[in-house]
Amino acid sequence: MQTRRKAHHSDLHNFSSYVNPEVDFDPFNTKLTGISAATVKDAPTFEVLWKEIQPMMESGILVAHNAVFDLSVLKACLGAYDITWKKSVRFLCTVQAGRKLLPGMKHNLNILCDYYGVPLDHHKADSDSRACAEILLKYIADSANEKDFIRTYRLT
User: What's the pTM value of the predicted model, to 2 decimals?
Assistant: First the structure.
């Protein structure tokens, strides 16, 4: 889970934090994101951060771009720290929705942001998540019914 903390700002509308994964960094991921072990050395672990983000995670349907990947990471983190949460979670994936709503085009986050004119600092979790939300709002403004794209992911 790649998020960033901004002077520990937290509410149900805006939260970001780096996470110290307590594992070695893959050079590919560091090159892709610019996030290194040095970047997260003072960041909270997932276990510590979970106490803060759990209420947000329960406040509605989770929305992500390539949601199944993100949910698999969440599932792995919960398991690694032996955290019991729920058996399943409702989610909406903007990639899956985009494939049905905008057939014939690529659905990479940066391509959709270019298409809709949404600002993006790619591979930075706060920017990626904000862009994902704006893309969902664009889908809805173009008459998509978000309820058609809600799925369930099993965590256990």
Answer: 0.86
